[in-house]
Amino acid sequence: MGLTKTDLFTKEQNELALLAKAFAHPARVAILQHLLKANTCINSDLVNELGLAQATISQHLRELKNAGLLQGNIEGVSMSYCIHPENWNKVKDLFNGMFNKIQQGAPKDECC
Amino acid sequence: MGLTKTDLFTKEQNELALLAKAFAHPARVAILQHLLKANTCINSDLVNELGLAQATISQHLRELKNAGLLQGNIEGVSMSYCIHPENWNKVKDLFNGMFNKIQQGAPKDECC
DNA sequence: AACAAACATCGTAATAATACGATATAACGA
DNA sequence: TCGTTATATCGTATTATTACGATGTTTGTT
Fold first, then answer.
1. How close B30 comes to chain A (CA, Å)?
2. CATH number at residue A64
3. Whether the model pTM is above 0.85
């Protein structure tokens, strides 16, 4: 036990869950929000900004990159990160595909 | 260590992360998708639908309820769950507030 | 070449999440 | 009342996440 049963679910369900997991830590939300403002940043910017250790920031950046939300470019001695625009919009559409499935004028006493 | 440093982040960042965590498991995504279609369901529906144990489904339902995404009503001997419409729309707006902050016509070589 | 700056990765301790059997509770029907 | 049905909760084994010091690697500088 303790292991998510991935095979029980659809590809879309697993994909959505993995993406949500990328957003599921305040440090990663903070990194994304910082990037939305600043466009670009490096590891040490975030260490100063957030107050977490360098190794911790690096780990969060890797997870965001693995999820496809960020891309990184070598910029001299440092690593420049930014949001991956295409993927960002795909993720946005994927979430909204779910968010918008709700019936707005739902029958009043259908449920709760 | 191993404990998220909530105090380092803003209220919004922590709130977004908590909500994302609710979406961060394929079983919970599946439950939400089922509810978007069926409007209403009970625990045992989901046990049949998803193939997880009753206790596991109950646990996932509680997490979705705690996150404010679901509401539940006693319906005779069973518990009827549905999506919480107001909160659902609030969550949608919260996520889109982030998703839409990206500059669409971003400068080409600004970053990556 | 030697040093510094910027990161990534490793190792690991602490904590959280996942899954489910077992058990408790509450409502309905015979 | 007694049994059945539907769930919630408890306990717990397993796995995943989080955080950071230590160390390695790469690039630029003197």
1. 6
2. 1.10.10.10
3. yes
